[in-house]
């Protein structure tokens, strides 16, 4: 009897030793996580869900205060409207009243030029005979030249109005109008995002901020668990890493659940976790582990909560 017990103990030790040569991968059940960041540094004025609650796509999670963003949007829309009006003015060109004024100024300049030239023509002979002072003759000559310059300036101003708006001004006006409109659209999108909604069907995992808090831009307002079923995130020991590949079948045992779940490897990292591989030699290399994820088959897996410990056996591992 004593020998029989000793023999059975040796067999059990041998079995355990054989199982130890091919260790299982250990880890936990997880779900894919997505984060809803704060689009603006605004105060939280409403929270519509609780942690652990299931939400549908498009359902509001929380509301940020929209007052300041709404005011900025109105200002940007006004600027866009102003830019559009300026562009319309450029496209319409000068008014006919402005052209008529330019023609009148040209006529007046020509009249002054004729009068100045006539006066200079009268005093020049008198100056040659020294009947008038030389300064008077010089003044008349300068007035005639100034009047002629005014005529040329009035003619150029009239031509500018008659030719209309330059093409380069139209390009600048259109660009300014588009830029102002784009800024207004950007602010409108920010205003819409102040109503934080679920982008997918999900479960609320955590709400880091409370009602009345003001989170900085980009801070996580909510963390959501998504996906139809959880997956096993495990660490594959180095001795069996070479035999693991994406798509390989696996058997997942969940703590507290009698039946094992069938699954397949959907991802395995190529870089080891914890101790760098180049620092390990010989038997120390067995301490390396590689992060892997295994999808679970079956409807029953959808109801499993995250965080449960799991043990994974790779069915067709080498």
From TrEMBL:
Reading the lineage from the top rank, the first entry is Bacteria
Q: Where is the Multidrug resistance protein MdtA-like alpha-helical hairpin domain?
A: 99-158
Looking up InterPro entries in the UniProt record yields: MdtA-like_HH, UPF0194_transport
Location(s) in or outside the cell: Cell envelope
* Pfam families registered for this protein in UniProt: HH_MFP_RND
Recite the UniProt keywords alphabetically: Coiled coil
According to the UniProt record, one GO cellular component term is:
cell envelope
Report the principal subcellular site. other
Q: What is this protein called?
A: HlyD family efflux transporter periplasmic adaptor subunit
Lineage here is:
Bacteria, Pseudomonadati, Pseudomonadota, Gammaproteobacteria, Lysobacterales
